Each structure stands twice: as C-alpha cells, then as structure tokens.
Amino acid sequence: DVDGFVPVSRYYAEVMMQRLGLDERRVHVVYGGIDLAGYEPAKKAPPVPTIGYLARMCPVKGLHLLVDAFVRLKSSDRFWNAKLHVIGAVTRADEPYVAQQRQKLQAAGVACDAEFFVNVDLQQKQDLLKSLSVLSVPATYGEAFGLYLIEALACGVPFVQPRHGAFGEL
To answer: What is the DSSP string of the chain?
Structure first.
C-alpha cells in the first residue's frame, strides 16, 4: 500500500532497499534541510583554533575518538592553544560515558581547554557553532544524514568526518 519511500540520503536509500527488498523506482531521496533563521557565519574567526562536536554525547557518535584526537593535537607545538567545545544532549545513560571523557581530558592535563555544553537551546547552539573553527562528529556507524553538518555549514563552519554513511554525499 506504499507508493514511495523517502530516505534522507542516497546512502540510506541503498541501506533500506537492501534491508526491505525495495524496488529502486519506489525510493526517492529528499535531502534534509533547516530553517536558516539565526544560522549565519561568524563576523570573525575564533581567536584560537576551536574544534567542535555537536551531537548526543554517546559512544556511537564517537566523542571518545574526538577526545583522543584533541589530546594528541594539544601535544603539538602548532595547536598547543586549541580549544574543544562539546555540544549536545546527554541522557542519564550517557552520564558515565561523558564522565569518562572528562576524566581522560583531566588526566591528559587539557581539561581546562575543553568545555561541555549540555542540552542547549537553539540560540545557544547557533552561537556555539559560530565559535568553532571546525566541527567533527566521528560517528562509528553509517549515519543516515547528519543534520549537524548542515547546521555547521550554514554557519560557515567546515567539518571533518569519517568516510562512511551519508557524510560523503554532504
């Protein structure tokens, strides 16, 4: 009884066609978008290199990978002054994982250069995006779309992502 299926990326279309045995003629990709109100590039670049993360703070979104990369980056002469802004939702189940990431930053001596912004509203998210030099959410699975990347681009923030899922399309 279904005339068509509307996935948010070509990647996800292929996943669902395989899983459900769908005929390609019934699948029509329509990429997601956002209301651009409030999304605009920052007036000037951040005073220091600032790496951002914008997603739920959980293992499958790869926050631990970004924290590890940040710790390595901070040991570089070139990025000694880099900052990390971790923005996103935290559920009760995520709290131990987030505490581990904070402890990792503390043990490496870089916790003072990392800030966590939990469960922010739209205005806060837009302002924080404008404070970034680059965004990375190194998801460990094939993400269907990654709306946070569209939000970053709308603020003029480039992103660095794994080469899987829908990220290549974006």
So the answer is: ----B--SSHHHHHHHHHHHT--GGGB---------TT----SS--SS-EEEEES--SGGGTHHHHHHHHHHHHTSSTTTT-EEEEEE---GGGHHHHHHHHHHHHHTT-GGGEEEEES--HHHHHHHHTT-SEE----SS--S--HHHHHHHHTT--B---SSTTTTT-
